[in-house]
Amino acid sequence: xxxxxxxxxxxxxxxxxxxxxxxxxxxxxxxxxxxxxxxxxxxxxxxxxxxxxxxxxxxxxxxxxxxxxxxxxxxxxxxxxxxxxxxxxxxxxxxxxxxxxxxxxxxxxxxxxxxxxxxxxxxxxxxxxxxxxxxxxxxxxxxxxxxxxxxxxxxxxxxxxxxxxxxxxxxxxxxxxxxxxxxxxxxxxxxxxxxxxxxxxxxxxxxxxxxxxxxxxxxxxxxxxxxxxxxxxxxxxxxxxxxxxxxxxxxxxxxxxxxxxxxxxxxxxxxxxxxxxxxxxxxxxxxxxxxxxxxxxxxxxxxxxxxxxxxxxxxxxxxxxxxxxxxxxxxxx
Length: 333
Prior knowledge:
Blueprint: H1 2-13, H2 22-43, H3 52-77, H4 79-109, H5 114-145, H6 149-165, H7 178-186, E1 199-202, E2 205-208, H8 210-234, H9 240-252, H10 254-261, H11 271-287, H12 296-316
Antiparallel strand pairs: 1-2
Helix pairs in contact: 2-9, 3-4, 3-9, 3-10, 4-8, 4-9, 4-10, 4-12, 5-8, 5-9, 6-11, 7-8, 11-12
């Protein structure tokens, strides 16, 4: 019994742990809300097609804000906390690229006009933040209550890594989404878009537009991705504020990343393999956590190196559009 307690204490001591006052949580929530409102009401007040240049600038701004917040963590709680934040942010940002390509397939399936895509993704991001918060607080609470859960998370990440390494020809079938089927039964709908509106009124009757269906499929797909990404981030930090803030900033920049990368799937030929290596690394890190703690700096270095190599190798590879097989992503289990 004493050995188990000692092992658990040692595991917890490997990660930063600090008290976060309620006002800090309130201030961070307010910051996220302000950033979302500025993006919605000032930057994207009117519906328009977002150009690659605009998406690149916005993506760079979101990344800069995220990196600057890491400096706030550094000044507030020191280098170890900042290292955990940056490691968590890098993991979530890299894994979220898969979200981008799945979103692209969803938009294509429902034939969403480009000018209306931003608004539905705005609400998708808002919902994702709420869902991720529930996953994060639940996941950390489970580990604090049942230390052995970390081995379950580690084994699951290894399983996911193996799945990513296998060629997948799954296709996305939004019409098979059980939640969407339920909503279609309960909510009167129309097949016609009405600008950026989720609902419209026809002949005095309130109807859901196809954008509501798009939002539902996007939110339900994010649950699938959260099952992978949250355990991966918990592998580098057990502090709820660090895990949530790094996750939140990665998600906030996801819309800009979507408009930048949505049509560039074939240019990232080795990204899936890179993500598989990252997931395998953090999975092993979890499984050996009570035997050896991989320093946060080393974790950050390994993750950054693997992703850099995957991106560089992908850039060097020049796919032939006529001979390159279709590698459209599907929702992984």
